[in-house]
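quick one, 213 residues, struct below
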Amino acid sequence: MQIADRCVIATDSDEVADAVRPHGAEAMLTSADHPSGTDRVAEVVARREFRDFDAIVNVQGDEPFVTESALRGAVRQVTSGNFPLGTAAARASEEILDEPSVVKVVAADDGRAMYFSRAAIPFLRDAAEAPLRSSRVWQHIGVYAYARDALARWVSLPPHPLEQIERLEQLRPLAAGMAMGVALVEERPTVGIDTLDDLARANADWKDFNERS
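---
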């Protein structure tokens, strides 16, 4: 994709590191005590060899099929100077609203994230407004971009009650007033891996990809 100058797999698992290194991937072992992936990324970024990198991208391990447009969109939120943090989302069908394993996001007109939730947001109070909501069902894509100082501030914050309630790490910076831009990508939402059904679907997609390659 030629988006990053350097790609590192941050993991606390020797098994993961041993699996990727023979394929030429760079893996770094981190503490097993991090409360979130962002905290894990911050440990790696704090190393001296990464001090000259101003923008950092975090692709979560449960989002193996994240697209180039989602990555570029998230990064652009930061490199444009508009936001210290960035992520991405895609329009989705209303069927996801009842799926707690699928994270939804609502954003302001300038693209700033207002809230992320596993619940149905935006909630439809009156059926007459259904056409309005249909275009506002946004599925979050698990990719984050950070300005270096914003990443440092994020991980300096204690886990927030909202983060703990929803099990969504991005609520920690939002609750502290940090701005996160959401890039809306015009494509079918990628499949994250949160359930056994998701894993079976991902394995099938991976097999199909390899057969077509």
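The chain has one domain: 9-212.
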